[in-house]
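Deadline looming. Please check this record:
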Amino acid sequence: MRIPIHVVRQWHPDQTHKTGHLPGDGITPHLRESDYSTRIRPGSLIAWSDRRAYEVVEVRERPVDLWPEHFRNEWDRYTAWWVEQVVAGRDMGDQPEKHTWKHRPLVLVIRPADQPTAKAVHYAVRASRTFYVLPEHYSVCRLCGEIPPCTHATTEAAIDHEMANTERLMSIPPGHCLDCGEPITFRMQATRFPGPNLWRPDLGDDTAVFHARQRCSDGVRAYRRQWEAKGYANGQQQLPLTDPTT
């Protein structure tokens, strides 16, 4: 089974599941139970960060005086921002309260779904955080016990995607767009990044060029992120300096 690249970058179960919202005041107040969304309650089965299934034992409010420090700091930043918006004349609605703040910490108590006698573990989780809620009958990888796609499968898929992308880049001739691979002519606007070519070092300096059109913009953004991370200045949109087709 081929795993899509978006699943490799942001994992989710490849089986039937719902988006689960935690209970509490102010948390998705208009939520309706559906085939896609549900309210998490004791007995719900959720996928945890280790890609394993856990049973929810309890969800409860955490006393304000017992909030972890980073939650207290976030609350201070949020309320300061809220005041700034009100002073600027924006309608921000009712003044936020700690006990109903949608990003406040809740206590989530869970235990492994396949170990009903295991000791439950307590976590402080953001009230607005959502979880993948699994059906009573869910599948796991027979080798590692993780919910598919398991870590091994997504790692292999990431390697396959990277190799395929490398092969694609290596097949692009000089002067062609590094996103779509098509030629760039004199009449086309292009975005050229000066300096070393991060994707095709073999082409030399000042050869990273993209079409200045919408369908090639994802490639431009991806390249720019890497380019700026190297400490370079902004690339300039310009006409190609030479005809890449000659």
